[in-house]
């Protein structure tokens, strides 16, 4: 300790000298990511603003999350801000479309009114709106996996002319000039400055907290109260494990891979949606799409990237009798030269009964994920 | 290493950091670095590039006008006659050059070690590491959500990645677009993918800086003019025809265009600027 003190003094002196002597220099990196303790820049008193760190707890039956929380530590203020933004129509060009306009809580933040996404000026996008849930575990986003980093995702719907139709610089300027947002950014990030990084990371923080893991199935595997499955549901689970779980794998019900499950070319979508190919330009990826999670699937109709099926019955029928052979077809759906998955009517009903145990009623009603009132 | 040694080293580091960082504020300190400026001059063959009004003919004999020419340059390194190399610090090594923005065509590296430089190396585009880095590391011209001078127009938001080179214009041989104009668009990106390998259109260019080295000295700094010749995009050995490929973006053919534009730059001249 004796040797340490004078050196520490020198170090702090050096730092102090650096800070004082170089004050006029341009500070290029004053937007450090959410440190829970941030001194308000420009305040002579050096008051420290204290945001409230939030713990992220992973459900016992889930793997470790993929999202790097160290680069964006959750705080109560950051999550609140993200939630405010998620429900804010001023993010769109016509002031009518929020994220929640397409991602509706009752349907696990998917959209059931339109088969394809529906945005500003009643324009249709080319794809079905997927659920937003458990995004902390996703390796890729979108049906073709075009986005790998959740922090970059919101730029896509905001700038998409058929979704929110706005430019990010306009959004940031509007928020900066608003009455309420600078104070919320101050609370979350320590200063009123609204940067792309802070805006995007606040939205990520809210979405990271959107964890859905309270289904009957979860209670069953975690051996908790409320996990009593019926004989038919259990039979469905067994059939699912045998026939579906290689692709819809694990507790997230997706192996996060890109596959072709034998959907025929949709004549109503022109030009054809080539899926993963549009991201990689690899021939072998043509007509492959990301295997979606099946959590809350009873709430996320319509189904498939183009919303072609409106019921789970149609989906199971597709696997049983509708699979179209094609060069990209996943080998799992063409075993021993037979296309599709042979399933009796009884089997189909059992699988559907099982899929219903994947509905998380607390998730679709949780006030923490609803609009701030 | 014992703790005491470590801490004194740390202290020394702090102090030297102080000295370096504040060099410019202290006239007594001996300068060891100086500025090096690159002037990007976009041309079409032997003519200057003039947006909208300039009329040119490409290697396929097609007439064209240019409405947009933007490109990213990154990862600069300068080589001295004696083999020593100065690598520009990563965070200060990304530039977006736009024909529509004069200021963007002048790139100054403020802290180049004094010496005689014979070559410069850089990447056309944004390297794969930065193409996937945290949003917090994408400042200035790399901010995909930033102001008009930033990446906003040079980024594919639905297929996260920068557009390395954007070249747009009009030509009588191009198809008519929604506004009634005959337009062509080339948006070339693709950094090779992160987990899944994809096309890699990043190109590294090394230019020799002429007969005489460019000298960074106490009271003297070089301004090197580099010409970017749009004709190179149309190519000679592999010709890009507007009629055949009026729009190339996320498309395997982008590899051909990228291979053409790897020849975009040529050294033009060096001026030594005296500053006393």
Q: What does this protein look like?
A:
The complex is a heterodimer of chains A (373) and B (276). With 373 residues, chain A is mainly alpha-helical. Helix content of chain A is 32%, strand content 4%. In chain A, the strands form three sheets. Chain A has a two-stranded antiparallel ribbon. In chain A, strands 3-4 form a two-stranded antiparallel ribbon. In chain A, strands 5-6 form a two-stranded antiparallel ribbon. The N terminus of chain A is likely disordered. In chain B, strands 3, 4, 5, 6, 8, 9, 10, 11, 12, 13 and 15 form an eleven-stranded mixed sheet that branches. In chain B, strands 1, 2, 7, 14 and 16 form a five-stranded mixed sheet that branches.
In a nutshell, what does this entry contain?
The complex is a heterodimer of chains A (373) and B (276). Chain A has 373 residues and is mainly alpha-helical. Chain A contains 13 helices and six strands.
Helix content of chain A: 25-40%
Unreliable segments of 5+ consecutive residues of chain B: 5-28
Largest sheet of chain A: 2 strands, antiparallel
Provide the succession of SSEs of chain A: HEEHHHHHHHHEHEHEEHH
Q: Could you report the average pLDDT of chain B, rounded to the nearest whole number? A: 89
The portion of residues assigned to helices of chain B is 10-25%
User: What class, by secondary structure content of chain A?
Assistant: mainly alpha
**How many angstroms separate the termini of chain A?**
54 Å
Please, how many helices of chain A?
Answer: 13
Total count of domains of chain B? 2
Total number of strands of chain B: 16
Continuous helix count of chain B: 4
Class by alpha and beta content of chain B: mainly beta
Q: What is the radius of gyration of chain B?
A: 21 Å
| DSSP E strands of chain A, number | 6
Beginning-to-end CA distance, first to last residue of chain B? 47 Å
Q: Which strands sit side by side, in order, in the main sheet of chain A?
A: 1-2
Q: Which pair of chains has the greatest number of interface residues, and how are they split between the two chains?
A: A-B, 47 and 43 residues
What is the arithmetic mean of pLDDT of chain A?
A: 88
Sum up the overall morphology of chain A in one term: globular
């Amino acid at each position: 300790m004796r040797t340490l003190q004078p050196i520490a003094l020198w170090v702090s002196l050096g730092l102090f000298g650096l800070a004082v002597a170089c004050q006029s220099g341009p500070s290029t990196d004053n937007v450090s990511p959410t440190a829970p303790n941030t001194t308000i820049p420009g305040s002579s008193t050096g008051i420290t603003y204290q945001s409230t760190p939030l713990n992220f707890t992973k459900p016992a039956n889930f793997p470790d999350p993929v999202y790097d929380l160290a680069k964006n530590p959750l705080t109560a203020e950051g999550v609140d801000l993200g939630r405010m933004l998620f429900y804010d129509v001023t993010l769109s060009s016509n002031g009518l479309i929020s994220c929640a306009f397409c991602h509706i809580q009752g349907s696990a933040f998917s959209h059931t009114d339109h088969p394809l996404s529906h945005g500003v000026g009643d324009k249709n996008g080319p794809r079905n709106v997927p659920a937003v849930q458990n995004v902390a575990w996703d390796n890729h986003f979108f049906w073709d996996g075009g986005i790998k980093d959740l922090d970059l995702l919101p730029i896509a719907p905001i700038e998409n002319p058929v979704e929110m139709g706005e430019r990010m610089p306009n959004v940031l300027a509007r928020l900066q000039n608003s009455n309420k947002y600078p104070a919320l950014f101050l609370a979350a990030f320590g200063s009123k400055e609204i940067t792309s990084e802070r805006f995007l990371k606040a939205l990520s923080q809210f979405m990271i907290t959107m964890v859905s893991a309270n289904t009957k199935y979860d209670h069953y595997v975690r051996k908790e109260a409320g996990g009593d499955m019926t004989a038919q549901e259990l039979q469905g689970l067994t059939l699912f494990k045998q026939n579906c779980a290689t692709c819809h794998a694990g507790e997230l019900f997706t192996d996060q891979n890109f596959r072709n499950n034998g959907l025929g070319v949709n004549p109503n979508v022109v030009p054809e949606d080539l899926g993963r190919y549009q991201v990689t330009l690899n021939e072998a990826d043509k007509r492959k799409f990301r295997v979606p999670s099946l959590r809350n699937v009873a709430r996320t109709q319509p189904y498939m990237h183009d919303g072609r099926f409106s019921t789970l019955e149609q989906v199971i029928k597709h696997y049983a009798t509708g699979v179209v052979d094609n060069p990209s077809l996943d080998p799992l759906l063409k075993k021993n030269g037979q296309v599709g998955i042979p399933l009796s009517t009884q089997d189909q009903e059992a699988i559907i009964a099982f899929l219903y145990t994947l509905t998380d009623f607390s998730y679709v009603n949780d006030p923490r994920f609803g609009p701030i009132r | 290493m014992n703790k005491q040694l470590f801490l004194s080293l740390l202290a020394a580091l702090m102090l030297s950091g102080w000295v370096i960082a504040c060099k410019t504020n202290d006239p007594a300190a001996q300068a060891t670095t100086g500025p090096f400026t690159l002037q990007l001059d976009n041309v079409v063959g032997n003519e200057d590039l003039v947006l909208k009004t300039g009329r040119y003919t490409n290697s396929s004999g097609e007439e064209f006008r240019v409405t947009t020419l933007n490109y990213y340059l990154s990862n600069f390194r300068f080589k001295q006659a004696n083999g020593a190399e100065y690598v520009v610090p990563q965070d200060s090594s990304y530039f977006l050059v736009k024909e529509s923005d004069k200021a963007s065509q002048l790139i100054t590296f403020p802290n180049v070690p004094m010496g005689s430089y014979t070559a410069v190396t850089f990447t056309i585009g944004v390297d794969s590491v930065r193409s996937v880095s945290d949003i917090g590391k994408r400042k200035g011209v790399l901010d995909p959500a930033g102001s008009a001078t930033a990446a906003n127009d040079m980024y594919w938001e639905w297929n996260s990645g920068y557009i390395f080179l954007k070249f747009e214009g009009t030509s009588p041989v191009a198809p008519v677009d929604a506004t009634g104009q005959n337009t062509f668009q080339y948006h070339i990106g693709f950094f090779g993918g992160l987990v899944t390998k994809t096309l890699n259109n990043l190109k590294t260019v090394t230019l020799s800086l002429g007969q005489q080295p460019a000298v960074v000295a106490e009271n003297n700094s070089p301004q090197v003019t580099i010409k970017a010749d749009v004709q190179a995009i149309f190519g000679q050995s592999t010709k890009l025809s507007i009629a055949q490929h009026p729009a190339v973006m996320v498309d395997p053919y982008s590899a051909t265009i990228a291979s053409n534009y790897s020849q975009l730059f040529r050294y033009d001249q060096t001026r030594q600027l005296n500053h006393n």
